[in-house]
Amino acid sequence: MNIATVSAIALLAASAAHAESLDAQRAPQTTIAYADLNLKSTADANLMLGRIRNAAAEVCRASPAVGTSHSEIVVRDDCFREAVERAVTQLNAPKVTAAFEARADRLKLARAQ
Question: d(Cα 78, Cα 82) in Å, to the nearest integer?
């Protein structure tokens, strides 16, 4: 079975000291099955990216370090971005990486406007 793991390891820390003390086994994580996908297909790569994004949102929401204050929302957003990027990198599927990079480029352009 093909699976990918999305984890919030060290992403939920508001400070570097907390990041160093966060145990990787205690950090929220989830696995994503993708045996039903052909990651060489652009359409399936986009589906996989969607699964990764959904899993990252779930993992980052599950952290006890995440709340509703402005700083906690920033931490959650950082967690999400970094968890997606790490999962895409670890997956090492060129079409998924291309889909991720295209989305990241669109977001950078939108923020610049």
Answer: 6
